[in-house]
TrEMBL record:
InterPro entries: RHF-like. This is HPF/RaiA family ribosome-associated protein. It comes from Bowmanella yangjiangensis.
Amino acid sequence: MQLIINASNLNLNKRLRRTLSNRIAKGLSKLSGKIRRIQVSITDVNGPKGGNDKQCQLKVDMHGMPSILVVERRASITQAIAQAVLRTSMVLKRKLSRARQFDRRPARQALTDITCSPAIIASN
């Protein structure tokens, strides 16, 4: 699993980067075998004005499935990261569950098998 971290309008020090990567690794550890790459973008939307303006965006690329994008905005960077990781984990579990459900459905009988049946040909 490849982790790419980008920040704009923020100064991400080593400690914060380590915290971010640990949260992501811990929160998505059960799904790490299915994940190819995670791109994290952290932004201070309003700059020095304050408020719920720290945005964390997680884009997850998985093997054989479409990408997933989760965006969270909170008052602090750590809150935004924690909530984004939690939501990403829930979305990934739901997507994988639906994919497994779809794979387990019984196959329908092909239409050609029905139309080429000897009983139908004999009645014509």
